[in-house]
Amino acid sequence: MKEPTRIIERVLVTEKGTRLAETRNQYLFKVNRRANKVEIKKAVEELFSVSVKQVNTMIRPGKRKRERSMHYGSTPNWKRAVVTLKEGDTIDLT
Q: How confident is the model at residue 69 (pLDDT cuts 50, 70, 90)?
């Protein structure tokens, strides 16, 4: 199994993520593109000592960026995971 810190890159603290955490007990993570749902579930359970109920993933497209001249590049695509925890479990984001 891969190391949990290699699978979970960071916790996403956004307005939508805060609202989901307060209302539905769901948390957003930026994860490795090659990680699957089972690996993400095990990594979150090991890192935060919680019980995971469900994991949803999605590939987010990279943004188009302009360089110093009129040449365009883009940031890479990335994977976001929405992790639903069982009732009574929470992750302290502070």
A: confident
